[in-house]
């Protein structure tokens, strides 16, 4: 049961107080009574699309956009920010009501906040600021490898990124809205993140004490993480070699980044361990072996000290750059990591197709509410369906909206990024077809494979532009990822709104407001990082490296050039070996009993470690370990507040990063004033 009671009276008593007053002693009927009260006309018909809700949603969305771009550039992983957005919006509105007393704040209004925020964040997360769009930039064009040209780039100014966001930021709504009844009522898909967000909103509105405890923890860990981030910056604190100096030379250090640890608190431990495993294999196994046996000085090929034939020669010191490392030792673990990404993506697509075919051939029989044994539950479901289906948009408006978005995309992407019109049209035609499967997959598993479909688009579009620019293939990739990701995110929001009795039309308006805010905010957030750091850069020297920009650039180059012949000797064999490993890992994960799943390494996570090294994996692993210890000591408190603590650390890390950039612009450097 994910919604609880409240009743609005003429005095406009706060909803959580009403819920407490209505609490009854019969434990078997508490949830039913509360749910029925929350869905009464007096509650549901209260204003939902209010100024304070939109204001709170845009503020939460702006901060979430910063976190999405920061974590995408730093780690390549952006955690789900739905719950964080709902929490931030809740506390912002509570603060507004303290300043302007006498108002009300309903769970349905909280859904509007969360929808607005997530729509704003989705623009930052899915438009490619840490992946495909970044790969079009000047620094990414310096990457060495197949199909690369240092002159093949787009200047990623604010206006350029703003125009790209405008061209891709609104597709999701017009894809998701027509499918909402099919996915949520007909198929009864779970959408786990949407359901969890509804549960959090329900708790915050029905339990004042838990809401206060959550706020204290959120603020405490935000302050702690911000302070720790600034202290590390000002003192230029060195990384902690907690396993000794020898392993520290291989990147096995703790960098004191609590915001990265926070992501590990949210992710499963098997993912954290897999990222760390990939990093250890790259820097403690492959790299030392290659350097010792097969790396030669910047001279013509000769034998190494061990007698083995050289596989590559280092660039002369005057010509050595980070980009040149992609044709040296880095190639033997970076490109295999990319190969694992590709295989995992294709496997995900095939698996999703299998699940969809299976669900249609032998659909699950939905469990209907028993109207005789549980009439209250049946009444609740009927009421939720009634609220959810009473909002309609004309077919011409939905279809016209998608056509308008397509026209804008064709014009802007064609004019600014020089992509042929027919290629943009092909991308926007294929995207809704992909979206249906992706939405159903997210509803079944909470597993968004938009990025996998985007990488799939690199293959045909790369071949279409063989021997030419890589930008068209990257643009088509990001159109697919952005539109499909936004559609899946919107459907998660619809699930949250459905469970809490929010009107879909108010969510549509909130989505439009959030997306409009996102296309303005996200490019500005990216500009902050693009001005402060070299993106993409060397993860060994840059605090924020944007390594996935290089990965997407490399993928596009390989597909466009049609081969791996430009890579150092034996790199293709390494790629094939790790591709097979990824396939085997995925197959085993699906065949073993579910109770063994948490102990099976994850191929996609391992690929991140291969490309980024062990540093991020250590942060994630320590964060997950802290949650495991907390869960062992106090499982109830961990269940209630672990996401809140992680949210505080993420927020503190983001605030700390803003302050560091601000201090750098006024001349305060690391180590100041010592």
Could you characterize what this model shows?
Helices cover 68% and strands 1% of the residues. It has helices at 15-22, 30-38, 41-44, 51-75, 82-99, 107-126, 132-135, 158-168, 171-176, 180-186, 192-206, 208-235, 245-248, 258-266, 269-293, 331-361, 375-389, 395-417, 421-445, 450-464, 471-500, 504-532, 547-561, 571-591, 603-612, 614-633, 635-665, and strands spanning 295-296, 312-313. The chain has a domain at 1-45. The protein has a two-stranded parallel sheet. Helix 4 (51-75) crosses helix 22 (504-532). With 674 residues, the protein is mainly alpha-helical. It is globular, with a radius of gyration of 25 Å.
- Give the DSSP E fraction (strand runs of 2 or more residues): under 5%
Distance between the termini: 57 Å
SSE order in H/E notation?
Answer: HHHHHHHHHHHHHHHEEHHHHHHHHHHHH
Please state the overall shape, judged from the principal axes of the Cα atoms. Answer: globular
The residue-averaged pLDDT reads 80
How many β-strand runs?
A: 2
Q: Order of strands across the biggest sheet?
A: 1-2
Unreliable spans are 1-35, 301-307
Q: Structural class of the secondary elements? A: mainly alpha
Helix content, binned percent = 55-70%
Main sheet, how many strands, which sense, barrel?
A: 2 strands, parallel
Number of helical segments with 4 or more residues: 27
Computed CA radius of gyration, to the nearest angstrom:
25 Å
